[in-house]
Amino acid sequence: MNNQKCFQTEGIIDASSKGAWEKVGGIPLVARNLYYLNKYGVKKITVIIPPYKKPPDLNKWSGDSNVNFVKKEDSLLYHLSQIRTETVFYLDSSFLFDERIINKILNSRPNTIFLRDSSDKESKKLLMCLLDRTGIDVWKNKGISELFRKSNIVYLDDIESYSLEMRGEVKPYVVHVQDRRSAKQATWILIKSMQKKVMDLPAEYLDPLFEDHLTALLCNTPITPNMVTIFSFIVATVIAFLFYQGHFVIGAFCTYIVEILDGVDGKLARTKLEFSRFGEYECVVDYFYENLWYISLGLGLKKIYQGNLPLFLSGIMVLCDTLDNIIYTLSMKWFNKNLDLFSPFDMRFRKIAGRRNIYCFMFMIGFSLGYYLQTFIATSIWAFITVVVHTIRLIQYNRKLR
Question: 55: closest CA among 43, 70, 66?
């Protein structure tokens, strides 16, 4: 992203239609687009609002951008012509845009128009564009047809579908929002697009069934992602107490609640665009309570079985979890790449590798059958194997790049 270029670009968000003010993911669509423009470096933004509407408070999403509200009393061309910066970026805020589209057009050469498909070109409908003074003059003097003819056209199919954040292919989307019903559909598309592609089996195939519905429910409430994280930590602490007291079965099944909530807080943050410093350190909270579970299991099992084997197994679990976290940290530090994305093998191994979600399902099955110690032994062995595999892969990848 060329930040210097974006600083020289003024943004115009057309929020003159009803759809721009419908809530998608719990916030007005215009607020979402305003957030993305600020994120990608546009620091001066004009929001066109209906003549009857009072300028709203959008400071929560505008960041450090200077936002000016103007009432739509003339044509779009008129408003674009008032811009005095080198380039102007325009988007119709009655559409939910994948942020990759906004980033792509912002960093294109001037006089680039984004369209969903060729039908938009035929109708000469502007959804999003980056224009300079030359482009605006062409429109003014020769008409919009000539602007389309002389501009670079970017279609939805031209947008890169691979998402580094989601670790895989995520089809770019554009959704026209006209009313509450289409806003609800747009919300679901938004939530579905947030599912990471390289995950363990439960997180990839089972958890979204619950996470997506809970996220959709919570995004229209005052509940914040931090509240979900805190509640998850409280449940996790109760689970540790259950394990310590020997209530292994109920404790194991309650871990699935934490597993779901752990997915919800991230999706809710990205849906409502509510990020915080606390959320950045969620992995530390996860590390703390997960290892508290393993220690509590060891202490709880020691009350039933003779000897120190349960405590030894607890130590193995904590050590392996710690080493695995270090390996992932080194992977990002050395290669700026998640270890799970090294190769197709690593992506496949991620599905069954020793991690909290896999252990929890092992606990639920094994404890339900009454094999308490045997299950803990199995998870400890799998934790050790996982660390060995990840260590080998880190070394191999390092040698490969030399």
Answer: 70
* pLDDT tens column, 253-304: 999 999 999 999 999 999 999 988 776 777 888 999 999 999 999 999 999 9
Q: Which residues of 361-395 are buried (b: 16+ CB within 10 A; e: fewer)?
A: bbbbebbeeeebbebbbbbbebbbebbebbeebbe
User: Which tokens is 112 given?
Assistant: 């680039």
Q: Where are the domains of the chain?
A: 3-163, 197-401
Same fold, 3-163 and 197-401: no
pTM over 0.85: yes
What's the pLDDT at 231? 95
Name the DSSP letter for residue 109.
P
- 400 to each of 46, 206, 326, 331, 338, how far by Cα in Å? 50, 35, 20, 14, 16
* Residue 11 · residue 86 · CB < 8 Å: no
Contacts of 398 (CB under 8 A, 6+ apart): 334, 335
Q: What is the architecture, at CATH level 2, of domain 3-163?
A: Alpha-Beta Complex (3.90)
Q: Can you read off the two tokens belonging to residue 29? A: 């669509």
Q: What is the dotted CATH code of the domain comprising 197-401?
A: 1.20.120.1760
User: Where does 50-144 show beta strands of DSSP type E?
Assistant: 66-71, 87-92, 95-97, 112-115, 128-132
Rama region for 344: left / alpha / beta (φ>0; ψ in -120 to 50; rest) = alpha
Sites in the chain below the pLDDT cut of 50: 1
254 and 239 Cβ atoms separated by less than 8 Å: yes
199 φ, ψ to 5°?
Answer: -140, 175
Three-state SS at 88: strand
Cα–Cα nearest to 378, from 317, 311, 326, 300: 317
Distance CA 383, CA 378 (A): 9
Question: Using one digit for the tens of pLDDT, what is the confidence trace for 192-228?
Answer: 999 988 899 999 999 999 999 999 999 999 999 999 9
SS3 152: strand
